[in-house]
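Appendix B. Chain record.
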Amino acid sequence: MSETPRQAPSSLQQFREFEYTRADFDRLRALSNKHSGILVPDDKFDMFYSRLTKRIRALRLNSFKEYCRLLEDESTQEFTNFINSITTNLTAFFREKHHFDYLQKTVIPELIEKNQTSRQIRAWSAGCSTGEEAYSIAMTLLENLPTGWTAKILATDIDTQVLDFAANGVYELSRVNSIPEERLKRWFKKGTGSQINKVKVKPELRQMITFKQLNLMQDWPIKTPFDFIFCRNVFIYFDRETKKTLAAKYSNLLTIGSCLFIGHSESLQQVTDRFELIGNTIYRKIG
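Structure tokens predicted for this chain:
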């Protein structure tokens, strides 16, 4: 097998605004892994260039090597911009609908019976991206909880830009076209004037959710347990040891019988014995 080249082919390099080598890419993805735990595959070489060129221009640097040196200075504030630039945020309202069906038909009735004293439900959307998942959870809870009950949702992400977007709660009409008209009218306000092609989530939803930045590789300032956790399309970015650590920490924040929802391409098999699979990438805590 031939060895991976250490720099981009000259035929491509000559069209680049800044010199960018495989060594630069390796330094950058090593920094990403050290900071966030995310494993960056070889096929992200060009993506890193296209996304980070904007940062190099904004900082008026001359090369990717200079940018690497800047990031390696632990006092720099650029790391947030770096992580924001390279993270991919793909989400949608009620994505993986079977999870929300199970939440409605099974989890919420169980919690209504279990939490009669507090009449409160706490949930976590970990890796919330631009907020569609958190707002989908909020809609499902409000549509199915009895009068007098309250629900609180913590929504976290490492990317501060998507958190700002999520907290604002304004979406293009194309982002909500899969939501039935009745639900859309109940929970969203249509824009007017310059906002004619947009919608904004209503205050009842927004007030339920606390958006916070959280790096899953660092300490979690969370003590109170949750009734269920959504952590979808997050495990795929980590190695097995990191997955084991995350699964244990999630388990510590759930009571026996509570559910952890993960992404359709993810699995906790051979990762943890504290959860059992109950179907469709839904796990229940058993220990």
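Further analysis of this model is presented in Appendix C.
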